[in-house]
Design goal:
alpha/beta, D-Maltodextrin-Binding Protein, domain 2, 5-stranded mixed β-sheet, 4-stranded mixed β-sheet, 13 helices, disordered N terminus, binds 2-keto-3-deoxygluconate
Length: 337
Amino acid sequence: VLLAACGGSDSTQGNGSASNEGGEATEQVDSKTIRAGIGLNSEHPQYKGLEKFKELVEERTEGAIVVETYHSGQLGDDRSMMEALQLGTQEVTVPSTAPIANFVSEFSVFDFPFLFPSSEVADQVLDGEVGQGFLDKLEDQSLVGLAYWENGFRNLTNSKQAVATAEDFKGLTIRTMENDLHLEAFRALGANPTPMAFTELFTAMQQGTVDGQENPYATIYLEGYYEVQKHVSNTNHIYSPFVFMMSKTFFDSLTEEEQEIVSEAALEAGAYQRELNREANETYLANLQEEGMTYTEISEEERQKMIEAVQPIIDKYAENIGTDVVEEVYSAIEAAQ
Ligand code: KDG
């Protein structure tokens, strides 16, 4: 039904082509259209990154490729947009790695709690050979991974209690992304995790279906979660990368030159997005406090307890993924420090 409704991705349809009203002798340009969708809103650095991608691609292809940008889950959530890419009914999306693990299970490794010590180390690992190896695994799923962007370090918010210790997670109903490792890690911490698409999260918090959630400060602030959440802690428990991906059907339909242009633009827009994102994540904790949230700092001792609580989950997933793959990531992290 989805396929029929969206008309497929037949580029010869020229859904972005100029009309030729009034019979003027204008040249009919058969442009190709990229529909690029994300879950976050138009204020978020992720969307600014998409706008940069649009600017670069349209300029460099001289309009032969038109990019339409969609935010706030207008085209769906991370999982459904990836499925649309597989079907060829959407061309680009930029999900977190967590939902990608439902398509390529090895991606779970990037969501190991407390894996990356800093964004800079993450950059080196993801932009290097190891990161590329993971992007290559997407191809079997009819997806082409073009670049890593950044969501960032995730922090816990909730409406019930200040979270300062590992014990404080107990009893809190926390929305997690749709990813088994996230679920099990929060369970190990004593919380009641419930997986949910990002697009349903605000309402769930507003209606009290969940007590809390976890996301980087930029998201917490720009999505206005301070309106429905009282407490924020710097748990920094997981670093979420974003993956800029394209429908393989669409990518394969491009000329070689166009493929190079979109690949390069995804990287360049990503560098820009990461910069804005880091500024945002540094700035917005103060804004959250100004909006009335109480901020609780996690001591090193308590963070250590959290690390210990989730270690069995990490070990379990490391075994499932394959210790060789996981070791590769660990070595790259070590080398980057
Ligand atoms: O645009 C990205 C969002 O759809 C999502 O990945 C954000 O971190 C996120 C979450 O919590 O779902």
